[in-house]
Amino acid sequence: MAGGRTAITRRVRWTAVVLAVAALAVVTGCLPRQVDPNQPTTPATFDVRPGTEEITVTGVAPGNRLSLVDKSGKRLIVLKADKYGQAHFAYIPTALGTYQTGAGQTLPTGEGNSLRPGVYTIRNEDTRPVQVTKTFRVDALGDHPSTALYDLQKGDIGPKGTDRSWFGYVTMRDGEQLSVNVRLPGPPDQGPYPTVVEYSGYGPSNPDATEPGSLIAGLFGYATVGVNMRGTGCSSGVFDVFNAAQQADGYDVIEAIARQDWVLNHKPGMVGLSYSGITQLYTAATQPPHLAAVTSLSVIKDPWLQQWPGGVYNGGFTREWLAERDRQSSAGGTSWVQKRIDGGDATCAQHQQLREQNIDFEDFGKSLVHRPADTDARDLSKLVRKIDVPVYLTGAWQDEQTGPQFADMLDQFENAPVKRFTLFNGRHPDGYTPWVLSRWYEFLELYVHDKVPHMPQAYRDIAPTIFEAQFGVPGLTFEPDRWTQFGADQYDEMRAAYEAEPDVRVIFENGTYGTVPGTPRGTFETTYETWPPPAAEPRTWYLGNQGTLNDTPQRKGGIDAYANDVDDGTKKFFAEPPGYQLLAPLWTFDWKRYEQGDGLSYVTKPFTKDTVLAGPGQVDLWISADELDADVQATVTIIRPDDTEYLVSTGLLRLGDRKARKVVPDPDDLRLARTYSKADYKPLPKGKLVRAKIAVPSFAQAFRAGDRLRIQISSPGRDFGAWSFTTIGAPGAERRVAHFPGRLSKVVFPEVSGITVPATRPVCPSLRGQACRPYQPLPNRTVG
Asked: Is the pTM of this model over 0.85?
C-alpha cells in the first residue's frame, strides 16, 4: 500500500475495490422493487428446489433473469442464469439489483445477509408471459423433515453379501445427494458394528483413500462412513462454508446412517480433525436424535474470526484454505472425482454441473470487513450450547492453522451430558498423537461402542510402527489402560467412575518427553473442572521505563513509540528451506527479531518461584496513532536464564474494533467479547491516547524460577507459522504506547497454583508448536 494515506482512507479504498469487483456482476436495467400485480403471468416450467435457507433453480434458458419475490410481492434479488440455465439463491443484497451468476462471477452479499426462511415465488422475467412458480417455503435450520426420508433409505446404504465396502449416495431433505463411502470391519451380516461418520469437504467418500479419523477408527474395529458435504466430491448441491444447508445435511446424514442394520444400537458417532472436527460440532448442534457422540479435534470458534482475527485480515492459512476449497469444489476439482466420472459414475458427473454456481468464498470473506450479524449462525461459540450428546474435544494453544480461539467456548457446552477436553501446547495434527488418541479411543468405546475400554494388545503392538511413520519418532505408543479394575461386565460402574473425573485435561510441555526432542508427549499434566481454570487468580504487570514489566506502577512513566511495518504481515517464523513441515518432529525456525523503533519490548524480573499461567489474558494498552485506525499485535514469550526465548501466544486487534465487554461478569475471567460490527467500529481520535484491550488467547505455560516474561508490541506478523496479515496503515507511521499515572498500560494473565513443575527446562527446539531463538534485548524508543 502507498504511504501517506490515513488508515480510514485505506479502509474506504479497500471497501470501494470490493464493491467495484462485485459490481462487475451487476447487470444494468434493474427491475422495480415491487411486482406489478396486473402483469400477465403463466405457470413456471423450470425446476425449483427450495432447501434450508437456500433455493436452487434449473431448467431455464441461459441468461434469463430470475427474480426472487417474497410474500408481500417485493423483489429481493434478480439473478441471471448461468450457461447451464441454473441459479442459486442464498444471499440477499441490501439494495435490489440484477446479477450474473456462474463461474468467475462475484455475487454481492451486502452485510452477508443469508436468505431468510419464509414463503417465496420465483419469476422468469424474460419469458412472455412471465413464468411464475407456485408459492413455496424455504425452511429454517430447525425445520426437520418427516422421518420417512430416513426410513425409506434403510437397507439402501452400505455393502451387501460378503462385501465390506460400498460407494453410493444418501438423499437429503431437499433432494440433494451426498456421496458416501462405507467401510465395515466384516460382512454386514456379522454386525452390527460400532459406527462413526466423518463428514467434510475434503475426500471422506473417496473409495481409494481414507481420511485419518476413519482410518484410525477402522483399525480399532469400527465401521466408518465417509461423507462429502454438498457441492464437494461427487455430492450434488452448491458448496458453501458451514452454512445452514451443510448443517442440516449433517443431521440428515446421521439419521439416514442410523437406520442401517449394520450400525450398532442404530446410533453412530462422529470422528475427524480440523475440517471434519469442525463439522461435527455444527452437526451435533442440530441435535440429531440418533447421534451417539462426537470427537472433535483441532477446531475453530468462529469462521469470520478465522479470517479476521482481532479484526485483522488473515491473508495466510485461512485465505489459502478457502481458496483451496473453492478450487476443489469446482467441477472435477479433485482427481478421485474425475476418476469416478471417467469410470462411468453418471450420478457423480451430473452433480458437477451445479458447481458452476459455487461462489468465491475467499473473496466473500474478504469483503466482510465488519462482522455481519448473520455470521452468528455459523459462530460455534453460540451453537455448541445446543449440543446434547457426549463431546470429546482436543486442541493446541499454538495450532498454526486453526489457532487457539476454540478455548474461549469450552464452557459453552452446557447441555452436553459428558464433556472431555484435552488441551496442550502443540500443532494442528497433534490430536492424532498417541497420548491424546488413547483418551479418544476410551471415549469412543464408552459412548459409541458401549463397552469398557480395554485396548487389545494387538493394537499396542502395531502402534509404534504406525506412529513412527507419521511423526518421525520411534517408540511412540498408547497410554496404558486406566480402567483395569473394571471387568467387561461392569460397564455402568466404569462409566460412572469416568464421568466423575474432571472435564478438562491440560498437558504441559508437549515435545519434551524422553530423549528425542519434539516427541509428541508432555512431561506433566493437570485437570480442571472447567476452562478457564476456576481457581485462577489474575496477575498484573505494568509497562514501565527502560522496557520493564513491573508488579506495581512506576511513579513516573513515559511514552514509547514504534513504526508501523506493513511488511511484517508477510513474515512467518519458519526457515526457508525447509519451510512448513506438518509432521516433522522438529521445526526449523527463522523467527525474526525487531530492531529498535520497529517494536516495543517489556520484560519482567526473573520469577522467584515456579509459576504457571493458564487461561486467557489481556494486554491493556493506552495507545495512539496519527491515523484513524491501526493494527496492533501483542506477543507473549518466555526468556530462560540461559537467554533462550520461547514463543507462548499472540493477540491481535484492529484498534477501530476496540469496543469490548467481558464474556462473563466474573472479575477473574479475562475473556473479552467483541462484535466487530460496523455499529461498534470507532475510528481513532488522531494523535490522542485511547484504551484498547488486546485479547490474548488461552495458553498454559510453566515459568520456572529464574525465567522472565516478555511482552512485545508491534505490527502484526513474524510470530506465526502459517498465518500472515494484510496490515492497514501507512508504512512507518508512528504508534505510541503510554505508561504513566492515569494512563497505565498493563498486562494481565491468570495464575494457577498446585502444580509441581519439573526442574528440567526444555531444550530449543523441542516444545511442539512453539518457536524458539536466542534472546536479544530490544531497547524501546522513548518519545515522551
From this structure: yes
